């Protein structure tokens, strides 16, 4: 049975799509609003502004790919759909970062976990970061709106064995756990969300807001990368962009975009990189600083029975037992989840080489993996990373300090305790120098004594946040609480870069709801000025 592909059908119906790789001469494009990036922020903003009657151009550096080409193979998905073919790393290479680069941004390849912004985060932002008007009550209708729009509902199907182990461990220990809400409609439970949903069940921006915007006349420009924001006094007057070829290398052809209003939705790291490269005013030196990752530790566990963590909804249970142990600014907390277990993804995040690695991979189908996402950005000694320009790109300098390693050690202990309580026969904290552990008593001692250090301990992130913080006080924020620049009348930022701290929860729903609120306010402002 052929799966209907909304992108193929939409293009056939006459959507305005310009594949930059086909442009061979300099071009200027104009609209009421130009949006840089087509992910969680860009997608939602595009739909709302188009619905308000404004002409919109969405610019995306990545390609337009759709279910027609999503073949559930890691070797194709990572180079096609991820930044740096899924091998992006921090400056010292100690943290691996996953981020999307295709139409739909990271939502095209994310794992569908949808969680509202924790109240603790919102209260901290109000009290400490000069954010105004973002309380759980004020945001509730925006969460409801986006939950309806993206069919976000509790996953009612039996979790896969990877998630079931998390649930069983929590039950045995009396720890808090929750069934995850997912943005899916008619999900086949394949477990391949991270390679682009092959059946268009995931309600990513690729199959929801972007098609809606295009159906109402918006223009999508793919394989074009914005390189510079041209500005003068308090106005942005153009965006300069490079055309990219099939391999996403610049062809030398330039495109100029002109608009009444400009929105940056290139995501954390890339929005700040673009701002730095364009030398936007930054009297308090904020751009790119306080970039957060939820730096994530992994613990493997071998079970007697098959886990088959590649199959079934990747994430369907989480535990918040340890996220806010002593209030927001107390010791760093961590959220417990599981990742999908696909061979390349896991082989690159496990330890050893040669025989020991081969032995571990031979038990691949019995391998359960638990992850602990550390909540960064609240404690005084948790300042996140800093985006820095290099000659041909950027670096994210994210030093891992003692406060982080303290949380990491606690997280490894919690994960081992949980995995043994769930019935694991061996637990393997993903940090060099510690072998497979056979009991909770043995693990407790080994984890208390093990050396944790950059490049010895595996740390990863799929949640990039911050670097262009929001707030009313320009001394600590680049944009106000509506995402409007403090320095330019016609520039907004709508993506994960505006979070003043990490969230302590998976980010997509926070970006959807806050963007929906801010884009609606912007649409009212722009249409009433017409
Ligand atoms: C593997 C993976 C799994 C994840 N799972 C979950 C999950 O289950 N739940 C959850 O809540 N979150 C998850 N996330 C994170 C979530 O998807 C992101 O937080 C969210 O999509 C970020 O939205 P954004 O708008 O900030 O940026 P993105 O969605 O990343 O979109 C930014 C887009 O801008 C484009 N861009 C960048 N620079 C330029 C430029 N100069 N010119 C033109 N275009 C540019 C990029 O190519 C990209 O497509 C996951 C992420 C990954 C990578």
TrEMBL record:
Domain called FAD-dependent oxidoreductase 2 FAD-binding: residue spans: 32-69
Lineage of the organism: Bacteria, Pseudomonadati, Pseudomonadota, Gammaproteobacteria, Alteromonadales
Protein name as catalogued: GMC family oxidoreductase
InterPro entries for the chain: FAD-dep_OxRdtase_2_FAD-bd, FAD/NAD-bd_sf, GMC_OxRdtase, GMC_OxRdtase_N, GMC_OxRtase_C
Domain Glucose-methanol-choline oxidoreductase C-terminal: 394-514
Alphabetical UniProt keywords: FAD, Flavoprotein, Oxidoreductase
Family: Belongs to the GMC oxidoreductase family.
Residue stretches spanning the membrane: none
Oxidoreductase found in the keyword field: yes
PANTHER family to which the protein is assigned, alphabetical: LONG-CHAIN-ALCOHOL OXIDASE (PTHR46056:SF12)
Species annotation: Shewanella algidipiscicola
Glucose-methanol-choline oxidoreductase N-terminal domain mapped to chain residues: 80-295
């Amino acid at each position: 049975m052929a799966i209907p592909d909304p992108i193929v059908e939409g293009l056939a119906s006459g959507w305005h799509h310009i594949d930059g790789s086909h442009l061979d001469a300099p071009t200027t494009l104009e609209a009421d609003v130009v949006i840089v990036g087509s992910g969680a922020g860009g997608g939602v903003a595009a739909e709302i502004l188009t619905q308000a009657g404004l002409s919109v151009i969405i610019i995306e550096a990545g390609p337009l790919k759709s279910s027609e080409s999503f073949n559930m193979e890691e070797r194709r998905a990572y180079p096609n759909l991820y930044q740096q073919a899924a091998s992006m790393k921090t400056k010292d290479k100690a943290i691996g970062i996953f981020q999307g680069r295709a139409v739909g941004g990271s939502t095209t390849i994310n794992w569908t976990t949808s969680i509202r912004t924790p109240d603790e985060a919102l209260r901290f932002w109000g009290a400490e970061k000069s954010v105004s008007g973002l309380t759980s009550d004020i945001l509730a209708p925006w969460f409801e709106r986006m939950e309806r729009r993206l069919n976000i509902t509790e996953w009612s199907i039996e979790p896969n064995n990877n998630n079931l182990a998390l649930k069983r461990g929590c039950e045995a220990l009396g720890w808090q756990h929750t069934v995850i809400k997912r943005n899916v409609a008619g999900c086949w439970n394949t477990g391949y969300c991270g390679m682009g949903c092959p059946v268009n069940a995931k309600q990513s921006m690729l199959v929801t807001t972007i098609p809606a915007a295009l159906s109402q006349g918006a223009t999508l420009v793919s394989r074009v990368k914005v390189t510079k924001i041209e500005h003068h006094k308090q106005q942005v007057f153009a965006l300069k962009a490079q055309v990219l070829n099939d391999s996403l290398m610049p062809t030398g052809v330039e495109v100029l975009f002109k608009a009444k209003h400009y929105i940056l939705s290139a995501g954390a790291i890339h929005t700040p990189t673009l701002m730095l490269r364009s030398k936007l005013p930054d009297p308090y030196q904020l751009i790119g600083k306080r970039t957060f990752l939820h730096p994530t530790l992994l613990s493997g566990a071998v079970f007697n029975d098959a886990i088959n963590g590649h199959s079934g909804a990747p994430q369907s249970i989480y535990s918040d037992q340890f996220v806010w142990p002593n209030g927001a600014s107390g010791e760093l907390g961590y959220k417990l989840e599981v990742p999908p277990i696909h061979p390349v993804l896991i082989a690159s995040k496990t330890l050893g080489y040669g025989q020991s690695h081969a032995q571990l991979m031979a038990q691949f189908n019995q391998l359960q993996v638990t992850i602990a996402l550390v909540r960064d950005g609240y404690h005084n000694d948790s300042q996140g990373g800093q985006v820095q320009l290099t000659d041909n790109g950027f670096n994210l300098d994210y030093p891992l300090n003692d406060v982080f390693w303290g949380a990491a050690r606690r997280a490894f202990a919690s994960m081992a305790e949980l995995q043994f309580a769930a019935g694991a026969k061996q637990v393997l904290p993903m940090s060099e120098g510690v072998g497979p552990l056979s009991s909770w008593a043995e693990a407790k001692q080994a984890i208390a004594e093990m050396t944790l250090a950059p490049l010895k301990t595996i740390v990863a992130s799929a949640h990039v946040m911050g670097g262009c913080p929001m707030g009313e006080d320009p001394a600590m924020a680049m944009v106000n609480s509506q995402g409007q620049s403090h320095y330019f009348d016609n520039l907004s930022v709508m993506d994960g870069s505006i979070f003043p701290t990490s969230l302590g929860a998976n980010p997509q729903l926070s970006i959807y709801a806050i963007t929906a609120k801010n884009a609606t306010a912007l649409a009212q402002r722009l249409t009433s000025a017409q």
